[in-house]
Amino acid sequence: MAASDPDESLVRRVASGDPAAVRALAARKLPRLMSLAHRMLGEAAEAEDVVQETMIRAWRQAPSWTPGAARFDTWLHRVALNLCYDRLRRRREVALEGAPEQTDDGPAPDRGLEAADVGRRVSAALQALPDRQREAVTLCHYQDLTNIEAAAVMGVSVEALESLLSRGRRALRAALSDMMEP
Amino acid sequence: MGEMTPERFEELAEAYGGETARWPQAEREAAAALMAGRPGFAQAVLARADALDEVLDAWRPAPASAALLERVLAEAPRRRTTGLAAWIWRGAVGAGLAGACAAGLLMGVSLSTASGGGHTTDTLSAAMGAYDGDTTAPLNTSAIGAAA
Question: Which A residues, 62 through 121, put their C-beta within 8 Å of a C-beta on chain B?
Protein backbone atom coordinates (compact mmCIF):
# COMPACT_ATOMS: atom_id res chain seq x y z
CA MET A 1 0.00 0.00 0.00
CA ALA A 2 2.79 2.39 0.93
CA ALA A 3 4.52 1.95 -2.42
CA SER A 4 1.34 2.99 -4.22
CA ASP A 5 0.84 6.20 -2.27
CA PRO A 6 1.33 8.93 -4.91
CA ASP A 7 2.03 11.56 -2.22
CA GLU A 8 4.72 9.68 -0.32
CA SER A 9 7.87 11.19 -1.84
CA LEU A 10 6.37 14.68 -1.84
CA VAL A 11 5.47 14.43 1.84
CA ARG A 12 9.01 13.30 2.63
CA ARG A 13 10.43 16.34 0.84
CA VAL A 14 7.96 18.62 2.62
CA ALA A 15 9.22 17.25 5.92
CA SER A 16 12.73 18.35 5.01
CA GLY A 17 11.45 21.86 4.28
CA ASP A 18 11.87 21.70 0.50
CA PRO A 19 10.03 24.85 -0.68
CA ALA A 20 9.24 23.40 -4.12
CA ALA A 21 7.66 20.34 -2.51
CA VAL A 22 5.66 22.54 -0.14
CA ARG A 23 4.23 24.50 -3.06
CA ALA A 24 3.60 21.32 -5.07
CA LEU A 25 1.72 19.62 -2.24
CA ALA A 26 -0.32 22.76 -1.57
CA ALA A 27 -1.17 23.09 -5.28
CA ARG A 28 -2.17 19.42 -5.40
CA LYS A 29 -4.29 19.35 -2.26
CA LEU A 30 -5.91 22.78 -1.94
CA PRO A 31 -8.41 22.37 -4.80
CA ARG A 32 -9.27 18.86 -3.61
CA LEU A 33 -9.78 19.89 0.00
CA MET A 34 -11.72 22.99 -1.04
CA SER A 35 -14.04 20.81 -3.10
CA LEU A 36 -14.58 18.50 -0.14
CA ALA A 37 -15.10 21.20 2.50
CA HIS A 38 -17.29 23.43 0.34
CA ARG A 39 -19.57 20.52 -0.52
CA MET A 40 -19.79 19.40 3.07
CA LEU A 41 -20.39 22.89 4.50
CA GLY A 42 -22.05 24.74 1.62
CA GLU A 43 -20.09 27.94 2.36
CA ALA A 44 -16.83 28.99 0.73
CA ALA A 45 -15.49 31.09 3.62
CA GLU A 46 -15.98 28.32 6.17
CA ALA A 47 -14.55 25.82 3.71
CA GLU A 48 -11.39 27.93 3.38
CA ASP A 49 -10.96 27.92 7.18
CA VAL A 50 -11.23 24.14 7.20
CA VAL A 51 -8.75 23.79 4.34
CA GLN A 52 -6.25 26.07 6.08
CA GLU A 53 -6.49 24.13 9.35
CA THR A 54 -6.20 20.81 7.50
CA MET A 55 -3.06 21.93 5.70
CA ILE A 56 -1.50 23.23 8.91
CA ARG A 57 -2.02 19.76 10.38
CA ALA A 58 -0.53 18.26 7.23
CA TRP A 59 2.60 20.39 7.63
CA ARG A 60 2.92 19.28 11.28
CA GLN A 61 2.31 15.66 10.38
CA ALA A 62 4.77 15.54 7.47
CA PRO A 63 7.96 14.97 9.53
CA SER A 64 6.45 12.04 11.40
CA TRP A 65 4.41 10.63 8.50
CA THR A 66 5.05 6.94 8.10
CA PRO A 67 3.41 5.30 5.12
CA GLY A 68 1.21 2.53 6.40
CA ALA A 69 -2.27 1.28 5.92
CA ALA A 70 -3.71 4.62 4.85
CA ARG A 71 -2.67 6.90 2.02
CA PHE A 72 -1.74 10.47 2.86
CA ASP A 73 -4.72 11.71 0.81
CA THR A 74 -7.07 9.46 2.77
CA TRP A 75 -5.66 10.77 6.05
CA LEU A 76 -6.09 14.34 4.78
CA HIS A 77 -9.72 13.66 3.89
CA ARG A 78 -10.36 12.26 7.36
CA VAL A 79 -8.84 15.35 9.02
CA ALA A 80 -10.85 17.73 6.82
CA LEU A 81 -14.07 15.81 7.42
CA ASN A 82 -13.57 15.86 11.18
CA LEU A 83 -13.12 19.63 11.02
CA CYS A 84 -16.28 19.89 8.88
CA TYR A 85 -18.20 17.85 11.43
CA ASP A 86 -17.03 20.15 14.24
CA ARG A 87 -18.48 23.08 12.35
CA LEU A 88 -21.71 21.28 11.47
CA ARG A 89 -22.15 20.38 15.13
CA ARG A 90 -21.64 24.00 16.15
CA ARG A 91 -24.21 25.09 13.57
CA ARG A 92 -26.76 22.69 14.98
CA GLU A 93 -26.12 23.98 18.49
CA VAL A 94 -26.65 27.55 17.31
CA ALA A 95 -29.83 26.50 15.47
CA LEU A 96 -31.14 24.87 18.65
CA GLU A 97 -30.56 28.13 20.47
CA GLY A 98 -33.18 29.76 18.27
CA ALA A 99 -31.39 31.14 15.23
CA PRO A 100 -33.68 31.41 12.20
CA GLU A 101 -33.52 28.51 9.80
CA GLN A 102 -31.85 29.00 6.47
CA THR A 103 -34.31 29.08 3.61
CA ASP A 104 -33.78 27.61 0.21
CA ASP A 105 -33.68 30.59 -2.13
CA GLY A 106 -33.51 28.45 -5.26
CA PRO A 107 -35.56 29.49 -8.26
CA ALA A 108 -39.01 28.18 -9.03
CA PRO A 109 -38.95 25.14 -11.32
CA ASP A 110 -40.65 26.99 -14.17
CA ARG A 111 -38.06 29.77 -14.26
CA GLY A 112 -35.15 29.57 -16.65
CA LEU A 113 -32.17 28.11 -14.85
CA GLU A 114 -28.88 29.95 -15.08
CA ALA A 115 -25.66 28.11 -14.25
CA ALA A 116 -25.46 29.87 -10.88
CA ASP A 117 -29.05 28.86 -10.13
CA VAL A 118 -28.25 25.25 -10.93
CA GLY A 119 -25.29 25.41 -8.59
CA ARG A 120 -27.42 26.88 -5.83
CA ARG A 121 -30.08 24.23 -6.27
CA VAL A 122 -27.58 21.38 -6.20
CA SER A 123 -25.79 22.90 -3.22
CA ALA A 124 -29.07 23.30 -1.33
CA ALA A 125 -30.10 19.73 -2.14
CA LEU A 126 -26.75 18.41 -0.90
CA GLN A 127 -26.96 20.47 2.27
CA ALA A 128 -30.43 19.09 2.94
CA LEU A 129 -29.10 15.51 3.04
CA PRO A 130 -28.24 13.88 6.37
CA ASP A 131 -24.52 14.48 7.03
CA ARG A 132 -23.42 10.88 6.46
CA GLN A 133 -25.26 10.61 3.15
CA ARG A 134 -23.75 13.92 1.99
CA GLU A 135 -20.32 12.66 3.05
CA ALA A 136 -20.73 9.43 1.10
CA VAL A 137 -21.91 11.21 -2.07
CA THR A 138 -19.15 13.81 -1.77
CA LEU A 139 -16.39 11.25 -1.32
CA CYS A 140 -17.49 8.89 -4.09
CA HIS A 141 -18.99 11.22 -6.67
CA TYR A 142 -17.04 14.44 -6.25
CA GLN A 143 -13.75 13.31 -4.72
CA ASP A 144 -13.54 10.16 -6.86
CA LEU A 145 -12.56 7.90 -3.99
CA THR A 146 -13.13 4.19 -4.56
CA ASN A 147 -15.77 2.47 -2.45
CA ILE A 148 -13.02 0.91 -0.32
CA GLU A 149 -11.22 4.23 0.24
CA ALA A 150 -14.46 6.09 1.02
CA ALA A 151 -15.59 3.38 3.45
CA ALA A 152 -12.19 3.58 5.17
CA VAL A 153 -12.38 7.38 5.48
CA MET A 154 -15.90 7.13 6.92
CA GLY A 155 -15.07 4.20 9.17
CA VAL A 156 -17.94 2.06 7.83
CA SER A 157 -18.27 -1.16 5.88
CA VAL A 158 -18.51 -1.08 2.08
CA GLU A 159 -22.11 -2.29 2.40
CA ALA A 160 -23.00 0.57 4.74
CA LEU A 161 -21.34 3.03 2.37
CA GLU A 162 -23.39 1.71 -0.53
CA SER A 163 -26.58 2.08 1.47
CA LEU A 164 -25.71 5.69 2.35
CA LEU A 165 -24.92 6.42 -1.30
CA SER A 166 -28.20 4.92 -2.54
CA ARG A 167 -30.31 6.83 -0.06
CA GLY A 168 -28.41 10.04 -0.70
CA ARG A 169 -28.72 9.82 -4.47
CA ARG A 170 -32.41 8.91 -4.26
CA ALA A 171 -33.06 12.02 -2.17
CA LEU A 172 -31.03 14.16 -4.58
CA ARG A 173 -32.95 12.76 -7.54
CA ALA A 174 -36.25 13.62 -5.86
CA ALA A 175 -35.07 17.14 -5.03
CA LEU A 176 -33.61 17.87 -8.45
CA SER A 177 -35.89 15.84 -10.75
CA ASP A 178 -37.22 18.95 -12.51
CA MET A 179 -33.69 19.76 -13.68
CA MET A 180 -33.08 16.41 -15.33
CA GLU A 181 -33.79 15.50 -18.92
CA PRO A 182 -36.96 13.39 -19.16
CA MET B 1 -17.52 -13.98 -9.93
CA GLY B 2 -21.05 -15.17 -10.72
CA GLU B 3 -23.53 -13.65 -13.13
CA MET B 4 -24.87 -10.23 -12.15
CA THR B 5 -28.61 -9.89 -11.78
CA PRO B 6 -30.43 -6.93 -13.33
CA GLU B 7 -31.44 -5.88 -9.83
CA ARG B 8 -27.83 -5.71 -8.71
CA PHE B 9 -26.94 -3.71 -11.82
CA GLU B 10 -29.66 -1.20 -10.90
CA GLU B 11 -28.45 -1.04 -7.30
CA LEU B 12 -24.92 -0.25 -8.41
CA ALA B 13 -26.10 2.48 -10.78
CA GLU B 14 -28.27 3.94 -8.04
CA ALA B 15 -25.36 4.02 -5.58
CA TYR B 16 -22.33 4.83 -7.74
CA GLY B 17 -23.85 6.58 -10.75
CA GLY B 18 -23.84 5.97 -14.48
CA GLU B 19 -20.09 5.72 -14.96
CA THR B 20 -19.18 2.08 -14.43
CA ALA B 21 -15.51 2.99 -13.89
CA ARG B 22 -16.66 4.29 -10.49
CA TRP B 23 -18.31 1.02 -9.56
CA PRO B 24 -16.62 -1.45 -7.21
CA GLN B 25 -13.67 -3.04 -8.97
CA ALA B 26 -14.78 -6.53 -8.00
CA GLU B 27 -18.13 -6.20 -9.80
CA ARG B 28 -17.13 -4.43 -12.99
CA GLU B 29 -16.46 -7.58 -14.99
CA ALA B 30 -19.87 -9.05 -14.24
CA ALA B 31 -21.46 -5.68 -14.98
CA ALA B 32 -19.74 -5.58 -18.38
CA ALA B 33 -21.06 -9.05 -19.15
CA LEU B 34 -24.60 -7.95 -18.31
CA MET B 35 -24.20 -4.85 -20.49
CA ALA B 36 -23.13 -7.03 -23.39
CA GLY B 37 -26.02 -9.44 -22.85
CA ARG B 38 -28.77 -6.88 -22.21
CA PRO B 39 -27.62 -3.63 -23.81
CA GLY B 40 -31.07 -2.01 -23.96
CA PHE B 41 -31.75 -2.55 -20.29
CA ALA B 42 -28.23 -1.52 -19.25
CA GLN B 43 -28.29 1.66 -21.33
CA ALA B 44 -31.63 2.73 -19.87
CA VAL B 45 -30.39 2.20 -16.31
CA LEU B 46 -27.11 4.01 -16.93
CA ALA B 47 -28.82 6.91 -18.71
CA ARG B 48 -31.06 7.48 -15.71
CA ALA B 49 -28.04 7.52 -13.40
CA ASP B 50 -26.10 9.75 -15.83
CA ALA B 51 -28.87 12.36 -15.74
CA LEU B 52 -28.39 12.79 -12.00
CA ASP B 53 -24.58 12.76 -12.36
CA GLU B 54 -24.75 15.62 -14.86
CA VAL B 55 -26.89 17.77 -12.59
CA LEU B 56 -24.60 17.08 -9.63
CA ASP B 57 -21.57 18.05 -11.73
CA ALA B 58 -23.18 21.35 -12.64
CA TRP B 59 -22.27 22.67 -9.19
CA ARG B 60 -18.65 23.68 -9.06
CA PRO B 61 -17.45 24.80 -5.67
CA ALA B 62 -15.46 27.99 -5.21
CA PRO B 63 -11.80 27.58 -6.15
CA ALA B 64 -9.19 27.99 -3.45
CA SER B 65 -8.27 31.68 -3.32
CA ALA B 66 -4.77 33.08 -3.71
CA ALA B 67 -5.06 34.48 -0.18
CA LEU B 68 -5.74 30.98 1.16
CA LEU B 69 -2.69 29.64 -0.66
CA GLU B 70 -0.56 32.39 0.88
CA ARG B 71 -1.87 31.64 4.37
CA VAL B 72 -1.21 27.94 3.93
CA LEU B 73 2.31 28.48 2.58
CA ALA B 74 3.12 30.86 5.43
CA GLU B 75 2.58 28.00 7.89
CA ALA B 76 4.62 25.44 5.96
CA PRO B 77 7.82 23.87 7.25
CA ARG B 78 11.03 25.74 6.40
CA ARG B 79 14.29 24.15 5.44
CA ARG B 80 16.69 24.05 8.35
CA THR B 81 20.32 24.79 7.52
CA THR B 82 22.63 22.47 9.39
CA GLY B 83 26.31 21.73 9.77
CA LEU B 84 28.84 23.70 7.77
CA ALA B 85 26.19 25.60 5.76
CA ALA B 86 24.52 26.80 8.96
CA TRP B 87 27.87 27.77 10.48
CA ILE B 88 28.81 29.77 7.37
CA TRP B 89 25.33 31.34 7.26
CA ARG B 90 25.47 32.33 10.94
CA GLY B 91 28.95 33.69 10.43
CA ALA B 92 27.86 35.73 7.44
CA VAL B 93 24.81 37.11 9.25
CA GLY B 94 26.91 37.89 12.33
CA ALA B 95 29.53 39.66 10.26
CA GLY B 96 26.82 41.58 8.44
CA LEU B 97 25.20 42.66 11.68
CA ALA B 98 28.50 43.66 13.19
CA GLY B 99 29.28 45.65 10.05
CA ALA B 100 25.88 47.32 10.09
CA CYS B 101 26.25 48.26 13.77
CA ALA B 102 29.76 49.53 13.23
CA ALA B 103 28.63 51.56 10.22
CA GLY B 104 25.71 52.89 12.23
CA LEU B 105 27.92 53.89 15.12
CA LEU B 106 30.47 55.52 12.85
CA MET B 107 27.69 57.33 11.01
CA GLY B 108 26.16 58.39 14.31
CA VAL B 109 29.44 59.65 15.60
CA SER B 110 30.20 61.56 12.39
CA LEU B 111 26.71 63.03 12.22
CA SER B 112 26.66 63.97 15.87
CA THR B 113 30.03 65.54 15.40
CA ALA B 114 28.85 67.48 12.39
CA SER B 115 25.46 68.59 13.69
CA GLY B 116 25.73 68.46 17.44
CA GLY B 117 23.98 65.08 17.83
CA GLY B 118 20.61 66.07 16.39
CA HIS B 119 20.36 63.03 14.04
CA THR B 120 21.91 60.36 16.25
CA THR B 121 18.58 58.80 17.24
CA ASP B 122 17.41 58.60 13.61
CA THR B 123 20.65 56.90 12.55
CA LEU B 124 20.43 54.31 15.31
CA SER B 125 16.81 53.65 14.43
CA ALA B 126 17.87 53.01 10.85
CA ALA B 127 20.58 50.61 11.99
CA MET B 128 18.10 48.79 14.25
CA GLY B 129 15.67 48.68 11.37
CA ALA B 130 18.25 46.78 9.36
CA TYR B 131 18.79 44.45 12.32
CA ASP B 132 15.06 43.88 12.76
CA GLY B 133 14.78 43.09 9.10
CA ASP B 134 17.47 40.43 9.39
CA THR B 135 15.83 38.75 12.35
CA THR B 136 12.21 38.74 11.18
CA ALA B 137 12.37 35.44 9.32
CA PRO B 138 14.02 33.36 12.07
CA LEU B 139 11.64 34.82 14.66
CA ASN B 140 8.60 33.89 12.56
CA THR B 141 9.95 30.43 11.91
CA SER B 142 10.44 29.74 15.58
CA ALA B 143 6.98 31.08 16.36
CA ILE B 144 5.52 28.66 13.83
CA GLY B 145 7.56 25.85 15.28
CA ALA B 146 6.26 26.66 18.75
CA ALA B 147 2.70 26.78 17.48
CA ALA B 148 3.17 23.42 15.81
Answer: 62-63, 115, 118-119
